[in-house]
Amino acid sequence: MDQIIKVERLSKAYHKLGKKSVVAVNNISFEVTQGEVFGFLGPNGAGKTTTLLLMLGFLKPDAGEIRLFDREVDDMEIRSKIGYVPENPAFHKYLTGEELLSFHAELYGMNKEQRDKTVPEMLKKVGLEDAKGRKVSTYSRGMLQRLSLGQALLNAPEILFLDEPALGLDPIGIVDVRNIILEIQQQGKTVFLNSHQLSEVEKVCTRVAFMKQAKLIETYKVNELKESLEDLFVRIIGQGK
Ligand SMILES: Nc1ncnc2c1ncn2[C@@H]1O[C@H](COP(=O)(O)OP(=O)(O)OP(=O)(O)O)[C@@H](O)[C@H]1O
Ligand SMILES: [Mg+2]
Fold first, then answer.
1. Which residues lie closer than 8 Å to 239 by C-beta, 6 or more apart?
2. Nearest CA-CA partner of 202 in 186, 225, 183, 236
């Protein structure tokens, strides 16, 4: 199977004038195979979002290398194969949900006919059909999260990067996200999931990696675990605390 994500000896520190630098990612290496749902776990501040932003090319590494589909992360062709749900989604609030997805579909190069087909399908998939005519500024936290997921899926990405996708979702929304992830995996696509929701991670992920204080501690195959993910998390991350 192809290694669709390759991260080698990656490091990143944040520098602020007059303040001590924060090492967010410290010499981490891992690979993700096509078709995996890869869970990236660890406590607050461990470096998960920073790693994701580096993989998306939004941040530049201080050291190390990232390859997506064996190409550089800022390769335009690669970017068109990626979907991303950020930790804190922000949108043009004056648009309605439907207009916003249509706007993004246009950015992805879809013509009117394609947009008229894809956008309603996506609104249905993420459960926003009833709210499609409302301005995004009136959306609740969970509705924004759903919209963000819809936007990330519009271009049928080969790799979907999710940073806490279930944050703020109601139980139905959590199940929706779970089913969307599983559906994407069934299509042979790859998901990279940052999450604290271990019960969900256990249900969807094939493999998990643990980050702690900027370092990657260990990776595990989920179906080989001899204990619950929560117990493993407490054992691994709780050590030395
Ligand atoms: N823009 C920034 N400027 C300075 N420091 C930052 C910045 N973003 C993150 N950090 C620091 O880098 C470290 C890693 O943060 P990061 O957001 O990657 O963690 P995380 O694992 O995603 O945490 P969480 O689970 O809370 O989302 C933390 O110490 C954080 O304070
Ligand atoms: Mg984060």
1. none
2. 225
Q: Is 77 left (phi over 0), alpha (psi -120 to 50) or beta?
A: alpha
Query: Whose CA is closest to 28, among 198, 208, 218?
Result: 218
Mean pLDDT of the region 49-72: 95
Ligand 1 atom at minimal distance to the Cα of residue 16: 4
228 pLDDT band, cuts 50/70/90, is: very high
| The token pair that represents 123 in the structure block | 């609104």
What pLDDT sits at residue 208? 97
Cα of 166 from ligand 2 centre, angstroms: 13
CATH number of the domain at 3-81+158-238, out of 3.40.50.1820, 3.40.50.880, 1.10.730.10, 3.40.50.300?
3.40.50.300
pLDDT in tens, 163-222: 998 888 889 888 888 988 999 999 999 999 999 999 999 999 999 999 999 999 999 999
CA distance 236 to 206: 19
For CATH 3.40.50.300, list the domain ranges present in the chain: 3-81+158-238
**What residues pack around ion ligand 2 (CB closer than 5 A)?**
48-49
pLDDT for the residue numbered 93: 80
Is residue 171 classed exposed, middle or buried when 0-12, 13-18 and 19+ CB atoms within 10 A define those classes? Answer: exposed
Is the separation of the CB atoms in 64 and 11 below 8 Å?
yes
Q: Where does ligand 1 bind, in terms of residues with CB under 6 Å?
A: 14, 22, 24, 42, 44-50
